[in-house]
Amino acid sequence: MNDDPQVLDQELDDELRRLAARFDPVPDELVRAAEAAFAWRGVDAELAELAFDSLADREGLALVRGGGEPRLLTFHATDLTVELEVLASSATATSAQRRLIGQLLPPGPARVEVRHPRGVLAAEVDELGRFTVERVSAGPVSLRCQQSAAGSTPVVTEWVPI
């Protein structure tokens, strides 16, 4: 047996990793989301940060307002704002799918890709900046927006759970 503290620490660390992988494995959805986030680390795109989330306001008003309202999200980048309305796809708020209705500002034709636990869904944005994406899996999502204007830099939103 080796008495070196660094070797003992490494052996303990290895054993704990084996036990965690066996008894409490990382969910596949989380692995896919992490891989997708890592894949975008070097992409030439600007990050749009979350500026508003109605869920944060709603929690403070839980006793006043009932549930079932759509969730509103706003993301800001240097030259683009993404406004998003998140709705459950069915009558129940616990549905595993969401419907996204969005608006890009400034308006104009573009393409939006919604990255979610089950893959990527794409939508064309009209000249008024509007788009809708159906059947988005509940869980972490991020949008990638590419405006049609020549030379425009893609904008990628932060990942948020929906």
Please provide a written account of the structure:
The chain is α+β, with helices and mostly antiparallel strands and 162 residues long. It has a single domain, classed as Sandwich (Immunoglobulin-like). Helices cover 23% and strands 41% of the residues. The protein is built from three helices and ten strands; from the N terminus they run H-H-E-H-E-E-E-E-E-E-E-E-E. Strands 1, 2, 3, 4, 5, 6, 7, 8, 9 and 10 form a ten-stranded mixed β-sheet that branches. The termini are far apart.
**Approximate helicity band:** 10-25%
Instruction: Give me the count of strands.
Output: 10
Terminus-to-terminus distance: 50 Å
**Count of distinct structural domains:** 1
List the helices and strands and how they pair.
Blueprint: H1 5-23, H2 28-39, E1 46-53, H3 54-60, E2 71-76, E3 81-88, E4 97-105, E5 110-116, E6 119-125, E7 130-137, E8 140-147, E9 155-157, E10 160-161
Parallel strand pairs: 1-9
Antiparallel strand pairs: 1-2, 2-3, 3-4, 4-7, 5-6, 5-8, 8-9, 8-10
Question: What's the quick description here?
Answer:
With 162 residues, this protein is of the alpha+beta class. Helices cover 23% and strands 41% of the residues.
Question: Which descriptors would you attach to this protein?
Answer:
single chain, 162 residues, Immunoglobulin-like, 10-stranded mixed sheet, 3 helices, 10 strands, elongated
